[in-house]
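Preliminary data (for renewal application), magnesium ion complex.
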Amino acid sequence: MVIMSESGPGSQSSPPHGRPLQVGFYEIIRTLGKGNFAVVKLARHKVTKTQVAIKIIDKTRLNSSNLEKIYREVQIMKLLNHPHIIKLYQVMETKDMLYIVTEYAKNGEMFDYLTSNGRMSEGEARKKFWQILMAVDYCHRHHIVHRDLKTENLLLDANMNIKLADFGFGNFYNSGEPLSTWCGSPPYAAPEVFEGKEYEGPQLDIWSLGVVLYVLVCGSLPFDGASLPALRQRVTEGRFRIPFFMSQDCENLIRKMLVVDPAKRITIAQIKQHRWMLADPSAPLQALSLSITDYNSNLGDYSEPVLSIMQTLGIDRQRTIESLQNSSYNHFSAIYYLLLERVKEHRSQQLSRQCGPGPRGPGAHPTRLPRR
Ligand code: ATP
Ligand code: MG
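Predicted structure:
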């Protein structure tokens, strides 16, 4: 087999009658979503036959500060390796275009899931929320804040496990060095952001997590308003309604996350200890077991079965290892990660079968959530 140049995407040629459009080793299947500066496509790797998502960015349409943001997003993704965070496989770049190849979340956005299925039972919400919390905790431990946590950026894989996506507003932080940029979408934004104050990144994410938990359990937003000033007023006052069906423990946890004063807001460590979170011992176990069994390979500790398969495909072993060690995110790394994914997929299917999908709540109804 011949491996093409390491980083170039090769042709993004127009299909000659019925042949799929191609980028590097990937065949484009269809559009998954559109962002402000990017289009996200579903594609298939020609060698491993695995499906991936490719975020395609036309650099000529971006000003320098937006381009910087995109490069920061890539830089952050390179550092993240967690079962509940979308995995980066490859980065391809030409003079005008940037292609970010990542893991594909087959069941799409949590936003769409809630829109068609209605709010979740608290049991189901707890399982999802543990996974979300593990992902955000992992980011914070790596000094990364997400700053755009919302149901549109929480994707679901083939096993309905959470995959945190879109680090477009992500940033690095050090405690005691506050950030100041306005970030995220208004209904999920914390009071300190509305007030234009400097803020500690992790506390901002915790507020958004409070909004996320409310949305999972209620199927509607806690803070809404006919206009931005009206929304701002509700958020800065921390005023929201608790529906009759919410349990007292759940209300207690949400109220601790949606505390207006960021210094008094609950921490991730405290959330993990909260009664509502611990009501079902299988929920943290499921989130934790995936975190422990996957993705913890250290530098120089690569999967022998995957390297052997690659060798039989005629792909140079040494170059693969070098690509992984150097964080090259080229074709060699991509094939390695995609084959590794197969192994993990098999394992997580076994785990989901053991833990079960979790029941849908009674009285669940289709919801209307305004897309932000
Ligand atoms: P926005 O500015 O609207 O937040 P964006 O340019 O940052 O968008 P993303 O949020 O990364 O782009 O992707 C846009 C949409 O494409 C997502 O909300 C989701 O619907 C879809 N999408 C992105 N990545 C994936 C993926 N890995 N698997 C499945 N769908 C995806
Ligand atoms: Mg997004």
